[in-house]
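Researcher: I'm preparing a figure for a lab meeting and need a structural model of a single chain. I don't have an experimental structure, so a prediction will have to do for now. The sequence is pasted below. Please return the structure as tokens so I can convert it later.
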Amino acid sequence: MSQSRILLALITLIFPGVMLSSCTAPSPTQTPTPSPTPSAIIPTVVTLPTEGVIFPPRIALEPFVSAPGQPTYLVDAADGSSRIFLVEKQGRVRVIKDSKLLETPFLDIVDLVESRGSEQGLFSIAFDPNYITNGELYVNYTAKAGNGDTIVARYRVSADPDVVDPGSAQVVLQIDQPAANHNGGQLQFGPDGYLYIGMGDGGSSGDPWGNAQNLDVLLGKMLRLAVRGEATYSIPPDNPFLGRNDARPEIWAYGLRNPWRFSFDRATSDLYIADVGQNAWEEVNFQSRSSHGGENYGWDILEGTHCFEPPRGCDRGSTVLPVAEYGHDQGCSVTGGYVYRGKKYPTLRGIYFFADYCSGRIWGLRQADGGNWEMAQLLKTDVRVSSFGEDAAGELYVLDLGGKVYHLTGRE
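Model: Understood. Here is the structure written out token by token.
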């Protein structure tokens, strides 16, 4: 019997059986799901627009570009150029223009990036909200020098809009990493203009240093920094732990194991955090746009909604439970995605898409009328989903660490 289950006391909707069609392209292999896979669902009070949405929807993956450099992230610069920027694990950022991968890298910091470990490398890029005028962007990578520290660095584009000025590098934040895994890696500007950074708990297994629940360290946290107009960074005046002697003021939320991918819903400003689990459960956390920060997402007291330390009778206290989880019979490492807000596929609107790196499964999650969360497995593929991407129009992409990028599409 599947480890994943519906918490019946919290569910008001039962999913009907659905047959999903697979992509006609020869790659990747896509297996239709005969019926949605249930998972733990926890209700909240925020609702998403559902007009015109059929849930679960039918989706497919269509080949977009080949990317031989182990793609880890994809984003646009919101500069009106329609370019897409593809991050490669080894330390390069490439430009996709008119659906073609340009030969000259936008950024090449291979000499700075430690990428030998499976959870090390260049992880993400974030363009300043004022990029059109200031040309500034930020990257998150594992440093080759030293002990594999996490580096967040600022760069500036050169006179050539398709190439970064390598001499403009400025380290904004450096965080010591005690192990080569759980380094997090996501950074993104929020709707409030602040830079959010996802940090793993420092690695090894079971959070042996107790970092995730320790407010005096930056590991196992979501950070929120003011970086515009700063030499390095300053603390936003409304950060939840500002002024406390026992906590780092950079912290926005804590109790995370490895928030490899998070994203903001561009329509509602709500935040979704996919947190990679230990040996049993993967989870998706939801933070409403009305949040003032300070949430404790439970690790390592909990793994998903389940006691981890101790394994029974744990004190959930004020922890915030995930809105969805799935067991390791369905995968082993969650990859967070985005809420679809594009115009091409109306049946996908308002649905949050995420996947599992190990199993290639892709799920949809949405909040229906009444506040209950619905989750369904939509597609089974052979893709090693390292990340999702979103372009300027709100269309979504799926990245395969094996070297391909796919366009996520709806199907009638």
